[in-house]
Design goal:
Layout (H helix, E strand, L loop, with lengths): L1 H36 L6 H12 L1 H18 L4 H32 L7 H46 L1
Length: about 160
Amino acid sequence: MKTDLQADRFKALDACHQQMHAHLAVLAELLEQLESDGSAALERQKVQAAEAFYSETARAHHEEEERSVFPNLLLSNDADLVHAVQTLKQDHGWIEQNWRELSPMLRAISLGEDWVDMDELRHTIAVFLTLCHDHIVLEETLIYPQAKARLAQELASRALRLAQ
């Protein structure tokens, strides 16, 4: 049933946000190390996992949001909601652009390479963390609740039609 798939989709999107928080914590830890002693001594495996997650899973997550969550909300008569969705779509572009700068540096660190400019890495991680945190907050406090409420209304309406 379509609505069951949509409900499952939200569970998957929510779970992905939890994974994002975990990987952002790794990047925040790396940033903290860079700011305290200038080194990138965090476990390479953690950095590699964060890099792989954002290069693959997070990109697919954003594509899924744009395909299955945002379109219905963009049809809303609520101008603030539409503006928030448009902002999130724009955020996806900014996050992707920042990630394209950050990813090679993280990959190099995870491989033990030493060509990374630590000041540039520090700045790029800080920007990425801010972009992602602000983005996730807007999704979790406004967009997902709105989309879930619309789904619940659709389910209730369908149940009522079936009962009649």
